[in-house]
Write a structure and sequence with these properties.
CATH topology of the largest domain: Rossmann fold
Number of helices: 29
Helix content: 40-55%
Strand order of the largest sheet: 14-26-25-24-15-22-23
Low-confidence stretches: 1-16, 223-230, 339-347
CATH superfamily of the largest domain: HAD superfamily/HAD-like
Mean pLDDT: 80
Shape: elongated
Number of strands: 26
Largest sheet: 7 strands, mixed
CATH architecture of the largest domain: 3-Layer(aba) Sandwich
Strand content: 15-25%
């Protein structure tokens, strides 16, 4: 493939706008360094303007000239050992199936590696002098290293091809050298015996390294395979078929056949298939996926409706205005895909270190061999070989490899104990850096469902119990989304139903019914005024107070007088203010974004002590606000619970979903709070800080061990006191360093959040 310089590409892009931007699932990536290789190769491919790879969700996005065929990009990837899914109808499913197959293969390899490593370790540690012990260990080690662990050697070779190194390089190098050295000592022990030295073997080290690191990769793959696809669930919200009026007849057709201008019939409980405008009928529609608000919205002639939202009890017809990829839901799906794919692949800290560490260790081993050959005298070759192998053995990646995963495993466990589910290491690494946090209102700061907060009955109300029964019965027959709050409130009081003679819904105003020839009304102030009902001054004053608190007020009256006023609101959680105070006291800027109106947003912000808030925001507005804060250098956390939050969650540096929220929000988010307690958010950020400190401590000890151990292994002390480190002692030191790293990680269990 022809490579293009970046400057040339940008110039060409400016002069030619016929380019395509598309996301492709990638197969075969096993580490963050793989993502770097895939990205660099895609960027250098002919006709590609830009590309990015997200290792976490195994997706590559490519911006390329329309003359380039996706199959060309696929061939580039296959040339370096990876693959792109470019022509499958359901590429997400193909990728998921491939990941499941990979997990099952890895599981089998890991189980066998552990099973074979146990007898090797037992012989190597307790029965090293048994007859044919070395031969038995070598026979058992061969399949572990060269068959069950072959992927580490293959991946190391891929990295070497592009002059890169990662943990796979360290694993392949240390296990390969340990095996070759041990095999030589098993087949030809006389070489060392003639020189007065014992022929040590390190088969157990090679086998156990493969087994342990395979186990770590298995746990990582399990976490990936158990994570549902947010995109797939969003796509599942789209209606599959639609009822269209054709020549006066309702016909059911696939949603893909809908065209702009078609008249569509929506029945009770159905999903709205495309965006449009109501032409006939009326109903209430649950638009929580867009606005995040739990109260269904009244839809009458001329009102807009959106794909993926759910019709309630009424029926209506509407004209299609936006279909296919132009609908609001399709745009949300696209935005989530782009936000997830646009993040630069997180190069794991250990992989970064390994990139420098591996060449340095190899260089030291080679330098050690050369120096001993030049200055070692009669035993020059013996000492040169022993010291260089000892350097490679003592630089085994166990401590380095365990430094990050053990701390993260304990951190994840500690989070689970505190009702914080953590899906990946990236959120733990970034959480402590958060200096701006965005909170959704509904379901995050508030309970997420409307409830009756207050009821006041008029002093003139004589038949109190009967009136409650009439109110309960009327609300039971109402289609209004707030009726359920009143029903639940009265049900708790044990109110029973009565028989109504008539019942009528007045769209946008309320309902009216007749009981024992007396008309009764439930609704807003407009309905009371139009029906000539007198409402006492006390009730009106109280209603005004509640409206100032952003509560919805419902009036209940007979044909003459107002009988009661009822306040309904989405209650603020008892822990919200405490959590917000804690975050603000730590110097974190806290923002509230909501699709609700400005009055409600202001009232909620005032009650919880928030200075920063924005109302009437769409899903894309939330994500744009995240980008705006990020452009100012902020590390942004987003906390939400709805489908409308999914784009912002995907865009944020740290994403946290409330456990009682939508599945899609939980899939996109990297952390999920099992409880609805907002106090878990500052605890999650504190846990991040403690985990990162533990990782740094582990890496410090792993490096101090290497900093001291490698020079001694190279023979630094030999000119001073004649001491040469035995490879067997180097192996023991290596094990001790691993134990110290694991022990330090376990200290996280006792940490207070």
């Amino acid at each position: 493939m022809e490579a293009l310089g970046l400057d040339e590409k940008h110039k060409k892009k400016q002069s030619q706008n016929n380019y395509i931007k598309k996301a492709f699932p990638v197969l075969g990536m096993t580490c963050a360094a793989c993502a770097v290789s895939v990205e660099s190769m895609l960027k250098s491919a002919r006709g590609v303007y830009d590309a990015g790879v997200n290792y976490a969700n195994q997706i590559a996005w490519v911006e390329y000239d329309e003359t380039v065929k996706p199959e060309e990009l696929q061939n580039v990837m296959r040339g370096i050992g990876y693959d792109l899914i470019v022509d499958a109808e359901d590429s997400q499913q193909v990728q998921q199936d491939a990941q499941v197959r990979h997990y099952e293969q890895l599981k089998k390899r890991t189980i066998w590696a552990v099973v074979l490593s146990i007898p090797i370790s037992v012989i190597g540690m307790f029965f090293m002098d048994m007859p044919y012990g070395n031969w038995i260990m070598m026979t058992l080690t061969i399949p572990v290293v060269f068959y069950l662990g072959r992927s580490y050697f293959i991946n190391a070779a891929k990295q070497a091809r592009y002059r890169k190194a990662n943990m796979d390089t360290l694993v392949a190098l240390s296990t390969g050298i340990a095996f070759i050295f041990s095999a030589f000592n098993t087949i030809y022990p006389e070489f060392w015996h003639q020189r007065g030295l014992h022929a040590h073997v390190y088969f157990e080290a090679a086998a156990v390294i493969i087994a342990f690191i395979s186990l770590g990769k298995l746990l990582e793959e399990k976490a990936k395979s158990n994570t549902s696809s947010a995109i797939k669930k969003l796509m599942g919200m789209q209606a599959k078929t639609v009822n269209i009026i054709i020549d006066g007849v309702v016909q059911e057709v696939p949603v893909s056949q809908v065209q702009v201008g078609n008249t569509i019939v929506v029945r009770p409980g159905e999903k709205i298939p495309v965006d449009g405008v109501v032409s006939e009928g009326s109903s209430y529609v649950d638009e929580s996926m867009i606005s995040g608000e739990p109260i269904a919205v009244a839809k009458t002639k001329g009102e807009k409706v959106f794909a993926g939202t759910i019709n309630q009890k009424g029926s209506f017809e509407f004209k299609a205005e936006k279909v296919g990829g132009d609908t609001i839901l399709a745009q949300i799906i696209k935005m989530v895909q782009e936000a997830q794919g646009s993040k630069a692949p997180v190069q794991k800290l250990v992989d970064k270190i390994a990139g420098i560490f591996v060449p340095v260790v190899i260089g030291i081993a080679i330098l050690t061999f050369i120096i001993w050959m030049l200055t070692g005298g009669e035993a020059a070759f013996t000492h040169a070989l022993l010291t260089s192998v000892t350097v490679l053995v003592i630089a085994c990646p166990c401590a380095l490899g365990l430094a990050t995963p053990t701390a993260i495993m304990v951190g994840v466990g500690k989070g689970a104990e505190n009702n914080i589910l953590i899906k990946d290491a990236e959120s733990l690494e970034l959480g402590h850096k958060v200096n701006a946090i965005i909170l959704d209102k509904t379901g995050t700061i508030t309970e997420g469902r409307p409830v009756v907060t207050d009821v006041i009955w008029a002093d003139t109300n004589t038949g109190h119990d009967l009136n409650k029964q009439i109110l309960y019965t009327m609300e039971g027959q109402s289609e209004h989304p707030l009726a359920e709050a009143v029903i639940n409130h009265l049900k708790e009081e044990g109110v029973i139903t009565v028989r109504l003679a008539q019942f009528e819904s007045v769209t946008g105003k309320g309902v009216k019914a007749v009981h024992q020839e007396v008309p009764y009304f439930i609704g807003n102030k407009t309905l009371m005024d139009e029906s000539g009902i007198s409402v006492s001054q006390d009730l009106l004053i109280q209603a005004e107070v509640w409206q100032g608190e952003a509560k919805t007020v419902i009036y209940f009256a007979d044909h003459k007088n107002g009988l009661a006023v009822i306040a309904i609101a989405d209650k603020i959680k008892s822990t919200s203010q405490e959590a917000i105070d804690t975050l603000q006291n730590r110097g974190i800027e806290v923002y509230m974004l909501t699709g609700d109106n400005k009055q409600t947003a202001a009232a909620v912000a005032k009650q919880v002590g928030l200075k920063h808030y924005k109302a009437e925001v769409m899903p894309s507005d939330k994500a744009n606000f995240v980008k705006e804060l990020q452009s100012k250098g902020k590390t942004v956390a987003m906390v939400g619970d709805g489908i409308n939050d999914s784009h912002a969650l995907a865009q944020a540096d740290v994403s946290i979903a409330m456990g009682k929220g939508s599945d899609i929000a939980m899939d996109v988010a990297k952390m999920t709070l099992i409880t609805s307690d907002l106090n878990m958010v500052p605890k999650a950020l504190k846990l991040s800080g403690k985990t990162v400190n533990t990782i740094k401590q582990n890496l410090f000890w792993a490096f101090i061990y290497n900093l001291i151990g490698i020079p001694i292994a190279a023979g630094l002390l030999y000119p001073i006191n004649g001491f040469l480190l035995d490879p067997m002692i180097a192996g023991a030191a290596m094990a001790l360093s691993s134990v110290s790293v694991v022990s330090n990680s376990l200290r996280l269990k006792t940490a207070k959040l």
